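Exercise 7. Predict the joint structure of the components listed below.
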Amino acid sequence: MTTRYVLRFTALGYVAALLVVPVGLVVYRAFEDGVDDFLAAITTPEALHALWLTVIIALIAVPLNTIFGVMCALAIVRRRFTGHGLVNSIVDLPLALSPVVVGLALVLVYGRNGWWGGWLIDSGFQVIYALPGMVLATIFVSLPFVVREVVPVLREIGDEQEEASATLGASGWQTFWRVTLPAIRWGVAYGVVLTTARALGEFGAVSVVSGRIAGRTETMTLHVEERFQSFEVQDAYAASVVLALLAVATLLAMTLVRKDEA
Amino acid sequence: MIVLIPLAALVLRSMEGGAGAFWEAIRDPQAVAALKLTFAVSLVVVLINAVAGTVIAWVLVRDSFRGKAFVNALIDLPFALPTIVAGLTLLALYGPRSPIGVNVAYTTSALVLALLFVTLPFVVRTVQPVLLELDRDMEEAAQSLGAGSFQIFRRVVFPNLFPAILSGTALGFARSLGEFGSVVLISGNQPFETEVASVYIFGQIESDNVTGAAAVSVVLLVASLVVLLGIGGIRRWATRHDN
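Solution:
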């Protein structure tokens, strides 16, 4: 019995010291000088623009990754093709790769001296240090989540129902909408939640490709760093609390999806 | 395509000046120091979290207490919280303005702390499902045969959990090798002391040494690939009796 309490105390103490107390302290610090100061810090033009930009990027990246993720998962589970295993490993790569490396790789293709960058800039389309680059970076780092959540579900449900539906004369589209999609919806939902969390919180890759111009290409996470480096710690705490609230909303969504699934 | 083309550009760019230039860039003392530090710290961090993660998973599955569901949801916080916020949070508690008088900012300990934070969920989330599925019969059999609780854990439970612990640890290791956001504020980024590989790469990009940045990036890329393939191997090994 005592072992049980020692283990419980160790586990909870570890979680508290590493997660709960630090996050609690930041919330406390953000509101230390009152709610007015907190609101003032997050309603500066830079902060508002950063939040807006973060939301825009997520709104573009998440739907694209959802569609791609479902297609990719279907290809991995239902089709046999050469390079099958390779595709499977490549999809996981963004999870294991440093975001800074991702940023650099994008600059080397789309930057001024990159493979296509010069040509793109000459045709009046700037990718790096502009929104398209930031969206690309976000898509890159949040690519695996939907795939990873949907693949096991697809394996689990098997393809008998899909075949039955095809035998009964349904077209490919009909089968997908009426049979496959309803079966995988919780997997997709969970993947979307994870993708959104990653898209809102991405820092390293966006930091490299954005040029970090305040009020122009600065996302919420970049804003936190910039405020901190300019010794405006209070502002950094305030912006962090906004991001932390989004994180808590994500956690809630994750818990809800898990409950519905069960 | 979104993934492969940029990575191909990265590898080609690092080789642009020939293999000699690539080795030159890798052997830069500052790059070597950053890479060594990254691998060493990541190893320490994942070992700590392998133990802590297993204990947490155990408590979440086998113990019961009020607020367990809350703690369970909390474990995912490092996945949901932006890494830069994670760094700032740790700095608030364990930095210069620490209310508890612990200041580890700009040291290797700060680095360890930040990486412990971001890699916490990996082992917990890989061990938890295995532990849930694990039959208690074997443990009870061991107990009725007179095994002590430590013996049961070592001989019965641990062998069953080992593949899960290993793959969670490997994922955490890969994550830790490339971590940037959470360490950038708290580590101080002192070259030769607290500068990790991803911060080094970032610095080289800022100072326009793209070749140096690309070369170290390729090292990280290869390391990630090796870890991913290793995890695939662990999975196959763990399920070798299933088919």
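Discussion. Chain B has a mean pLDDT of 87.
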